[in-house]
Amino acid sequence: MKEQLRQKAQKMLQENVVDPATTAIEGILGGVLDRQLDGIGLGGEPQK
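Given the sequence above, the corresponding structure tokens read:
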């Protein structure tokens, strides 16, 4: 019973905290990297 509760709590933590936080961090870092690449002329869109 104790192990089942621990596993359920761990799964809930992973799904509700860790996964969304990881997605948010990846989005932030991706945006920063894109801006840096654009700034040095290596981005996907031409400089204006």
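The CA atoms of residues 39 and 47 lie 8 Å apart. Try to locate this feature in the token string yourself.
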